[in-house]
Amino acid sequence: MSDNKKSYKEGVSQEVKSGEALKQTEEIDYKSKFEQIEKEAKENYNKWLYLRADFENFKKRIYKEQTDFLKYGHERFARELLLVVDSLEWGLSHAKGDVQGLEEGLRLTLKQCLSVFSQFGIAPIDSVGKKFDPKFHEAIAEEEKADCESSTVIREHRKGYTLHDRLLRAAQVIVAKRKDQG
User: Fold this and answer.
1) Among 37, 95, 123, 152, which is least packed by CB within 10 angstroms?
2) Per-residue model confidence as pLDDT tens digits over 105-114
3) Where are the alpha helices (DSSP H) in the chain?
4) Of the candidates 168, 79, 83, 59, which has an alpha carbon nearest to the alpha carbon of residue 123?
5) What is the H or E stretch that residue 151 is in?
């Protein structure tokens, strides 16, 4: 074989070998990239599982807190109101025929009860002498009254209360009606 043919064959052979080597290198690169991507996917899946479990636990904890709040949210209010009940019981046990003392005890207990209400944002609605307001009053009767403007609250049958800015119970009132001048 001539030198040219020989060197050509060797050149082609080297190119084939280098092509195969390149192909093997690319296969190794793809394989290592695939393994790396597969590893990242597993890590991300495990993170997702952990976050999902964490979120489920969070939901359960929030549900329990809400349930407990609804069940025990008025605990402080109840404790304060128990003091009022104690005062009533104490007053009744010591009343025994002392009507004036009983009246005084009831007034003090009512004052204590209204104080507890105030601590929790419960306020009585001041109605007598005010214009009738259907947002806060429930008229249960009308009375003719010459010295009052029509639709003025002249008496309360049952006091109304608000809780902060919300109506808790409307006041039941008796409203003035102008006497017909005839």
Assistant:
1) 37
2) 888 888 999 9
3) 3-72, 75-95, 99-119
4) 168
5) none
